[in-house]
Design goal:
463 residues; mainly alpha; Serine Threonine Protein Phosphatase 5, Tetratricopeptide repeat; 4 domains; two-stranded antiparallel ribbon; 25 helices; 2 strands
Length: 463
């Protein structure tokens, strides 16, 4: 049966299937805690567009199990009658299943250009371009689509938040912030827009404003789905900036990683936060052990090298050397795949070096970590993730330099101070670097205190 979705666009399905599809789209857009349950129902629907979206969402989990599930849905869709819109979504899904994420995003980009109100295509494209580091296209796609949306379309304000985030990654902070704030004002439950403003404030070193901003959204965050954990991660990073390490650890335990998980974003949040704490000398206790099962579960499917680079550090830190070797060998084999597999190209250009470097640092081999991370430093933007997330790799390189007592660490730390003039933690890094080569870091420490450093734990020299 031909009908239209909530955005007035054609799709096959009866009234109940259309209702379910609209719910699925809305749960996806809003990071609803009920998304998984809605996906289960939508996977059983006969509506091809719903099956395509469920397939895309399954692929985001980046496991061999979800790849198989998405492939089964694609086979079901192939046997159905499709209109041109559904055919494009089906083709994009198939490209994604094959590992050709660039081809998939190009199909979605054409669909958004011809049908700007296709919010599913727009949102999938938004995340795909982000993961590929194609920030200019990310800005352009949502900018153009936004011009064609009228006020009667559902969730129109979300486009302001999407543009806000894209502009932030393009370092256009003054344009990004008001758009994100307007989006949250229009819809306080829009976690992606809350997240977008959090990025702006972090990139500008405005950590007191960042803490206040996230606290203002505490209710929707506590009621939100799993993505809320990533926004809480941002709050923990703000705490790190001013030395509130006890608060960061408490947040880790309560909201960032409250229970062992196999979910990729939860694990990368956890690895990143524990790394950052240990890098500045905080004792995190036995928290690494809670990541072991989840990280080992993720081995074997390398479509998202950004995450693998986090897992490699965790495996090294946990002394799981056999599993670390298995991860790195698997990544090397994956990198030999055909050139149209985007993740294989990323692994060849930088992913393998970053993963080897992070794994070496986790194992305590600082010289190997330094050489591998240095090799990849100019190209790790290709891993995707945000500037804020990739800063983990910069911190890892700086920690390796300091541990090796290299003069370069002083230059690297000074560059960090210049890039983040309002960051107390940047001064602490500078103190570590100066002291590592026998200098006096007290001046940098005093500057950190003047900027708001209030360390609530005794720090060691870092790990």
């Amino acid at each position: 049966m031909n009908s239209t979705d909530a955005w007035g666009l054609p799709m096959h399905g009866d009234s109940e299937e259309i209702r379910l599809h609209n719910n699925l789209v809305d749960d996806y857009l809003m990071f609803s805690p009920g998304l998984a349950q809605t996906m289960e129902s939508a996977a059983l629907s006969e509506a091809p567009l719903s099956k395509c979206l469920v397939g895309q969402l399954l692929l985001m989990a980046s496991t061999t199990e979800t790849l198989a599930m998405a492939s089964t849905l694609a086979v079901d869709v192939e046997a159905q009658s499709l209109n041109s819109r559904e055919r494009n979504h089906f083709d994009a899904l198939n490209r994604e299943i094959s590992g050709d994420s660039i081809g998939a995003s190009n199909i979605l980009a054409d669909l958004v250009a011809s049908t700007p109100s296709d919010v599913v295509a727009l949102r999938l494209l938004h995340f795909s371009l982000f993961n590929q580091g194609r920030i200019t296209e990310m800005v352009n796609s949502v900018s153009v689509a936004r011009e064609h949306w009228h006020d009667g379309l559902p969730r129109k304000s979300l486009l302001d938040g999407m543009l806000s985030f894209a502009l932030c990654e393009a370092k256009e902070f003054s344009s990004a912030e008001p758009l994100g704030r307007e989006a949250v004002l229009a819809n306080p439950d829009d976690l992606w827009s809350v997240h977008a403003v959090s990025h702006v404030l972090e990139m500008q070193g405005r950590w007191p404003a960042g803490i206040h901003w996230i606290h203002e959204s505490e209710k929707p965050l506590r009621e939100g789905g799993s993505f809320a954990g990533h926004v809480w991660w941002h709050l923990a990073v703000y705490f790190l900036e001013c030395g509130r390490h006890g608060d960061a650890l408490a947040l880790f335990d309560e909201l960032v990683y409250p229970a062992p998980s196999v979910e990729g974003l939860a694990l990368s949040n956890a690895v990143s936060l524990l790394c950052r704490l240990e890098f500045v000398g905080v004792d995190v206790g036995g928290r690494w052990g809670n990541l072991a099962e989840g990280v080992v579960h993720r081995l074997g499917y390398h479509i998202h090298p950004f995450n693998d680079c986090h897992y490699s550090f965790a495996l090294g830190r946990l002394n799981k050397t056999d599993e670390l070797e298995s991860l790195l060998n698997g990544m090397e084999l994956w990198s030999d795949a055909a050139d149209d597999i985007h993740s294989a190209r990323v692994l060849r250009k930088c992913g393998l070096s970053v993963a080897r470097g992070m794994g070496a640092l986790g194992c305590g081999d600082n010289h190997l970590a330094y050489s591998q991370l240095t090799e990849a430093a100019e190209s790790w933007w290709r891993l995707g993730g945000s500037v804020a997330q990739r800063d983990l790799f910069s911190q890892a390189l700086l920690r390796a330099q300091i541990n090796c007592r290299m003069g370069q660490s002083n230059d690297h730390a000074r560059e960090r101070v210049n890039a983040r003039p309002q960051s107390p933690q940047a001064r602490i890094w500078q103190a570590f670097a100066v002291e590592a080569i026998g200098g006096d870091g007290s001046s940098a420490h005093r500057e950190a205190v003047a900027l708001g450093w209030e360390s609530d734990l005794d720090l060691k020299s870092g790990r």
